[in-house]
Amino acid sequence: MLKLLFLSIAILALHPSFSSGEQCKLSAPPPTSPLTGLLPCTLYNNGFANIWASDHQTISDDQNHVTIELDASSGTGFKTKTTYVYGFFNAAIKVPSNDYTAGVINTFYTSNAEIYPNTHDEIDFEFLGRIPGEECILQTNVYANGSTNVGREQRHRLWFDPTKDFHDYSILWTPEHVVWFVDDIPIREFPNLTGQKADAVYPGKQMYLYATIWDGSDWATDGGKYRANFSYAPFVASYSNFIVCGCALPQPSSPLAPVCDREFSNAKLFPSQLSTRHRRNIQWAQANYMTYDYCQDKNRYPTPPPECATSPPKIHEQIDNEQHEIGVDDEL
Ligand SMILES: *[C@@H]1O[C@H](CO)[C@@H](O)[C@H](O)[C@H]1NC(C)=O
Ligand SMILES: *[C@@H]1O[C@H](CO)[C@@H](O)[C@H](O)[C@H]1NC(C)=O
Ligand SMILES: *[C@@H]1O[C@H](CO)[C@@H](O)[C@H](O)[C@H]1NC(C)=O
C-alpha cells in the first residue's frame, strides 16, 4: 500500500498527464524524500487500544485497518498503550465521505493531558467537517506546557480529496522541531526556540498518540455556524499503516530520558534541520494551500508569538546538502 502510494506519486511527478483531469487546476506536489517507507508499520494490537465506545470501532483481522465512527449516540477513539518522548508517528487516513460532515472532527494527535492536566503538551492533526461543496480543511496545532491560551493553528486545503483514498499524515517530534507531513511532504515546522527566544514554548513531556472522531459542532465548521447533522450519520474515518517510532517511556512520571535525546537528536534518520528540499516543500504547501495562519492573524495576536518571526522558514543555503536529506541514503 505504501509502496503503491509512492509509486503513484513518482508517476505523478514524472508524467503529470497520467493523473486525473483535475490535474491542470492543481499545483502538483513537489518531489520529496519519503520517511514513511523507511520505517516499519505498527500493528494495531501491538501499539494501540480503544479509549471509549469500542462498539463504534472495527479492527481488521490483519490488525492493519481500523475504522472509527461517530453517530448520534457516540464518537470513539484509540490511543497508544504507552507514552513516548520524541518520535515519528504516521497513519494513513481516509476521512468521512458523507455529503455533509459539518461539526465532525477526526483527529490524529499526540497529547499528555491525561497525565499533566494543567501543563499539557499536544501536537495535532484535525480534519474539520464541511458543508456540501466545500473543501476539507486540515488544521494543525501545537500546545506546550499548558499554553492553551495561545492557539497556534494553521489550516490547509489539500492537493487531493482526503475522503477518496488513504493518505499518510505524519508527526515528527525531535528536540529541535515538530514537523507535520502529508504524504511525506512537510507542510509545517514548529521550531524549538526555548533558550533562544523569550516566551518560546516547546512540547517537552512524554505523550500518547491518539486517533479520535467526535462531535465538535461548537467550533469545527465556520466557527460553529454549521453543526453536526446526524441524519447523515454514521461518519466513518479509516486508519491504516501506523508507524509508531518513538522513544517509549512506559512510566508516565519518569523524567525525560537522556536515551531519547541521543536517539532523536541529530539522529541520522531525523536530521535536526530540514533539508532545502523539505523547506521548499513547506513553502509550496503554505503558498498554495494554507488558508489560515495564526502568525498572520493580527486581530488575535497584535504581537505574534515568538516563533512567528522565523516562520515561514527561510532557505539556508549552507544546509543545502542533498546527502543529508531525510531518507535519501539513511537506513533504519
Ligand atoms: C511548565 O509549567 C510549570 C507550571 O507553570 C512550570 O513550573 C514549569 O517550569 C514549566 N516547564 C517548562 C519546561 O517550561
Ligand atoms: C529545546 O531546546 C533546548 C535548547 O537547545 C533544549 O535544552 C531542550 O531540551 C529542548 N526541548 C526539548 C523538549 O527537547
Ligand atoms: C439535517 O439534514 C436533513 C436532511 O438534509 C434535513 O432535512 C434536516 O433539516 C437537517 N437538520 C438540521 C437540524 O439541520
From TrEMBL:
Post-translational modification: Contains at least one intrachain disulfide bond essential for its enzymatic activity.
Main location: secreted
GO cellular component: apoplast
Domain of life: Eukaryota
UniProt keyword Membrane present: no
Signal peptide: 1-21
Record InterPro entries: Beta-glucanase-like, Beta-glucanase/XTH, ConA-like_dom_sf, GH16_AS, XET_C, XTH
Positions of region (Disordered): 303-332
EC supergroup of this enzyme: transferase
Biased composition (Basic and acidic residues): 314-332
Purpose of the protein: Catalyzes xyloglucan endohydrolysis (XEH) and/or endotransglycosylation (XET). Cleaves and religates xyloglucan polymers, an essential constituent of the primary cell wall, and thereby participates in cell wall construction of growing tissues.
Cross-referenced PANTHER family: XYLOGLUCAN ENDOTRANSGLUCOSYLASE/HYDROLASE PROTEIN 8-RELATED (PTHR31062)
Protein's recorded name: Xyloglucan endotransglucosylase/hydrolase
Species classification: Eukaryota, Viridiplantae, Streptophyta, Embryophyta, Tracheophyta
